[in-house]
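tool=predict chain=A
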Amino acid sequence: MTSRKTIWFSLLTLSACVLPIQGGDLKNPGFEEAGNWQIIRKGDALQGAFDDSVSQNGKKCFTVSLANGTATKKEDFAGITQVLELTQADRGISFYVKDDYTGGTKGYHWMELLLDQEVIWESDVAGGDTEWRKVSLDLTGYLKEAKLKQVGRNKYVEEKSYQITFRVFQRRGVNRFGVRVWVDNFKLLNAPPADPQNCEKKKAPPKLRDLLVFYDKADRLQPITKPEHFQAKRQQIIEGMLQGMGPLPKRPRRNSLSDFNIRVVNTQVRGRYTKKTISFDVADGEVVHAFLYEPLNKKPGEKRPGIVGMHPTGSTGKASFESWPLCNFPIELAMKGYVVIVPDYPDFGDSKPYDFDTERYESGTIKGVFNHMSCVDLLQLHPDVDPDKIGTIGHSLGGHNAMFLAAFDERVKIAVSSCGWTPFEYYETKKGRLKTWALPRYMPPLETIYHSDHTKFPFDFHEVAAAIAPRVFFSSSPTGDGVFPGWGPKAAEAAIAEYYKAIGVEAAFQFHQPRAQHRFPWDTRQMAYRSMNDTFDYHFHGELGLLAERNGKEAIPALRKALADDDPIVRWGAAHLLGTLGDQRGIGQMKKDLKAFSVEKNGLEHALEVATVLAESGDTSGYNLAADLAIHGTTHGQRWRAAIVLAHIANADKSFLKTAGMDPIAVLKTIAAEEKHEGVFFVFIDQVHKILKKRTDLVEIFSIAKNSRHHLEAPPGNKFSIAEIFHSVAVRDQNNTWR
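tool=predict ok
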């Protein structure tokens, strides 16, 4: 638990800033004395310093240097800054610069002068000569309109303070050549220069609302300086969200699952869980349709974390995940032992048609929040769920719905958002695009009240992220996301991180930016699951699993010791976890367990789990058992586990398998043609797609599966069968390696 003292210290540190100089003039313009300028930098490579060996006119100047052979990163910089008062009487600014690099390698080191955060002059360091040159800039275009500062909820005052910054900026990183730049003798001009050297006016980057301020009782904007201010800030963010979404009705109070009037439409046992298609009442005349994934083989009385899964935009709603090989995280979490509920968002899946005009909600978004909070109500009363361990995860539409749920509902301990957000101004990639946020299924008040003007919107997405604190917010915002442009979350990252640090939970904001488009890559999903495990103190393999995820290779000695445990399930878990850490010490024990359990009728499923651990490590000892049980297994659990073993073995060297008389691909093709059980068939299709590395084999197997006479029916809302969908994805991605 973070102490109040720690939070207070963080606030004091974050409140430090450059104070404006009074008097309307630059102080110490020639660096002949100490003070007034502040050295700034990003990264460790570029160095800024006051230099007493070179001067344009005097004894001193300011210099930025980069040593030869020193690597830099894109957007590293070093420079100086000063805050002062400017008026319309200040018509220009001049200064002198020189540098020591005359080579022709352009586009790396740039000299810049910024007024506030806007670049008004720039020059490539490359080329030219090593002499001093004068730069004169016109300020009239930047000062002709009054600069306003917000001091209250709807109150602004004229702001005369401006920040002047000179810096050397890296537009691309380097690792070979260094430079040195000098700047000296700044001067404010009372007349515009005859030949100004301003660069073309650039579009100013969006300025996000400050997170470290709140409105006091007089509605005046104040800095957050006390721990209790954070709660006030959160409440004000929630109030802004309600202005954009409409009011959130109260939910009925429930004391048991029977109060939801749950109707089970269909039940299917598959893998490690049971999938139920359900509908339940959230209010009078209001029904939510959902999939509920419940774990099998729990210990008596054992409770698991509960997850509200949020589907993306897609007409099938909750069923999107069933037919989406590359993003079916509710199914992956269910296989890890979580209890997962995936509701239809209004007007998707089984909730179609939904009449937004006649319902009592002012927006589809707030109806979604109401439904999703009702899902939390249900999970908390579920006998398999620990009511204190609730999370949410979503992609795209589901990504921001996960954020909204966590912002409104403090029972949610972690929110995972994939491709779900970007600040509103960054969303406006073309004129009028923001109007999509005002569609009936989203937030009509953004148009009817705020006319789709993001500057007037009552909330923004970085504020929603702040409202989730101090709980965990995991954001996956890919660089190439064309729906919620990835540069928007990247621009907001620092402000959100600063807020979480100030509140004392720096590690709770987890920002990831994979190189991908609008998708949730496999590796990033695994990081999200580890974050969930850590948040809930839960792991499919219990304490050993948490130890391995938290401590990495430091956990190896404890895992090796667990290989001698009397409980074969502990041994299996230890061997699997060792394998994930690159340690093969568990193979010997797993071979012994495979031999022992293969001859026990009640031990065959465990033998296949052991065989999977071996196969993941490249050992094919379980082939014969898996090849037999995949076709002749008497239980569902035997057949889907056997298919997983074979998929891993199929990744082994083909010549080795042929010499050993093993043909796992042939057996997998037989499963594709002959497996009758719907649940086993789904796990087979899903797991083979995730495991098998050779895509030509994958396409051949799915070509057979899509023609299986046992599974020709398309799932609700789809035109094609599950195998047809997986086959089309496998064909499309033959030249890709992602899962």
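The first strand starts at residue 38 and ends at 42. The domain at 4-204 is CATH 2.60.120.260 (Jelly Rolls).
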